[in-house]
Ribosomal RNA small subunit methyltransferase I (Verminephrobacter aporrectodeae subsp. tuberculatae), 261 residues
Amino acid sequence: MNAGTAGAGTLYLVPAPLDFGCATQAPLQDVLPAATLQTAARLGHWLCENAKSARAYLKRVDSLHPLSTPLQQQQITELPRAVHKKGDHGDSGAARFDARPLLAAALAGNDIGLLSEAGMPAVADPGAGVVRAAHALGLRVAPLVGPVSLLLALAASGLNGQHFAFVGYLPQDAQARAQRIKELEGVALRTDQTQIFIETPYRNAALWQALLQTLQAHTRLALAHGLTLPDAHIQSRLVREWRGQATPPDNRTPAVFALGR
């Protein structure tokens, strides 16, 4: 955490519960520490993935810790659509996203919260460009404590937690997806590096079927979905043990997949 420029505000990375889009919600106080909720409650400026879900989150916070700024007066700015759809790291030759103009309120002395729809912003979610801009402007950056689905799934998988990689989303095209699965399996078996990936929930079952059809029988495959919820499902088995008895993850609940040896 950097010291920050005198008189400027802080950029807080505010984690959200992992129940976005799920049929049930976890009690907020069960998944986020009081200090995180108290910090969120006192902020009045936000950068977020989606303003509607940000307001819903703040309403939940307000029920436990009254907001210092009424919800209707919160200054909530959405990140550009291209940032959370295509990333902001200049992939495919595109220019990197310059988020410095979004941090004018912090330069004027206001603390700002960065919020994604679930989990930690900037980790498997948009926001890295905002953090990068904050550092460039000399602002203090403060990550708050909360759930990170990738690490929860890794810890519960029994796979190598000393050497791992998060590889994002796999291709949608069936042939390209199968090729990518083989590539990741090759790396995992050759180097003992756990490979972690995610999928849009409505494609969970299709990815699961592709994994069981493509992976070798002795590869270990872990599935975690509904993390932090009462009906969380976390299992880790060899592929040969999954085949014939596996129930695919539903197409509504966010899931994390991991493979290795």
About this structure: Residues 166 and 196 are 5 Å apart (CA to CA). The beta strands are 10-14, 45-48, 75-78, 112-115, 140-143, 164-169, 194-199, 220-225, 233-238, 255-260. DSSP finds ten helices and ten strands in the chain. The longest helix spans residues 174-191.
